[in-house]
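okkk here we go again. third time trying to get the NAP bound version out, last two times i messed up the smiles copy paste (missing a bracket lol). double checked this time i swear
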Amino acid sequence: MAYEANALRYDQMIYRACGKSGLKLPAIALGLWRNFGFDRPLDLSRDILHAAFDSGITHFDLANNYGGPQGAAEQNFGILLKRDFLPYRDELVISSKAGYRMWKGPYGDGGSRKYLISSIDQSLKRMGLDYVDIFYHHKPDRDTPIEESMMALDQIVRSGKALYVGISNYGAEETREAVRILAALGTPCLIHQPSYSMLYRWLETEKVIDAIGDCAIGCICFSPLSMGKLTNKTVNDPVGIDDKVHKRLIQLNEIATDRGQSLAQLSLAWVLRDKRVTTALIGASRIEHIADSVAALNKLDFTPEELKRIDEILA
Ligand SMILES: NC(=O)c1ccc[n+]([C@@H]2O[C@H](COP(=O)([O-])OP(=O)(O)OC[C@H]3O[C@@H](n4cnc5c(N)ncnc54)[C@H](OP(=O)(O)O)[C@@H]3O)[C@@H](O)[C@H]2O)c1
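finally!!
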């Protein structure tokens, strides 16, 4: 049956300005890194994407290497886009990235103009798209002058293959440098995509969030549930989890319960507490994860006591 999106999809989501740009992103976005490759039933991927869009999640995040195997997530997404989402293309923000190893030889990873431009062409073909909304340099490449990578991003926008560009996994100084170069080229940096969760606070300790705030760019935080660790599943079944981490999860879950939230909801609200963070970028392996995660938006505020207690647990 043809997919018809939920008519009330925009009622439950919060949309936040992405830095000082005119683009608004949903506070919760869905990434297709895992669970969308050829190793999963396409119907399940389809149901998860429907659940997400029906809940107001307008942003789907991909990369050249998501799978498995590499490229499979873009290929599957292309099939589902054609089947269900083409009438909604203008309601969607679709991103892709290049940076990690994608094909053999000296031009299959990094940050050269050669790699980035070949890679976006391949991604567009796999997804059956004319353009992506956001294209990222996936990680800094210290073997390539940053100017070359940023000039490639600028060329990608000017040639109509992406509307906006961003950077991912860049440190604080690299972020400031990338933003400065892109501004000089006339293609402003839209967004940074770092990892950030209660269990991984590199964004704060390395002052990347300060660079993001100073540069007034957007910030979409990946793995806000620490790849599924910050969930009730791990509280109840800590297989492969360090005892110390498990103790913390139990204590954090007590705070979540007092707030009437699941641990996943507390974790997402915590990432979104900083106004410099635009979006929490989740993954999902089940349809139910979408509704549970989006319901985090029902309680985003924290008391100073709750924040202090969380810091003590994580110290
Ligand atoms: N730029 C980069 O370098 C980079 C790196 C990594 C990821 N990313 C992006 O970030 C996205 C998300 O990464 P991630 O998968 O690590 O995110 P995550 O949200 O931290 O973890 C997702 C996992 O958490 C569990 N889960 C999700 N919602 C839940 C809920 N409400 N209740 C209970 N469990 C829940 C599921 O695990 P189970 O399947 O175990 O139940 C799911 O697979 C990726 O798809 C990708 O787009 C970017």
